[in-house]
Amino acid sequence: xxxxxxxxxxxxxxxxxxxxxxxxxxxxxxxxxxxxxxxxxxxxxxxxxxxxxxxxxxxxxxxxxxxxxxxxxxxxxxxxxxxxxxxxxxxxxxxxxxxxxxxxx
Length: 105
Description:
Layout: H1 3-17, H2 21-27, H3 34-40, H4 47-57, H5 61-65, H6 73-82, H7 87-102
């Protein structure tokens, strides 16, 4: 995997999250140019820092590196939220989804 992919993916997901490079840099505890230096190729994050960046963006490492995955950040959050729900709530959600999708057919 090329470093260009990582740089482009950071930018893509950062923009979907709606946060600036300088804000993201400071939220991660770095100077305001930290993310800009990474996406411009002036520096590369360590593996540990890349994992912090991925966590900050709000996706799993699998989703970050899966080029073919078109799953949105919101979809990932929904899936993560479903993992601990009781079955009765999951069944209720399924019926709500079915009802909302009725108008699309």
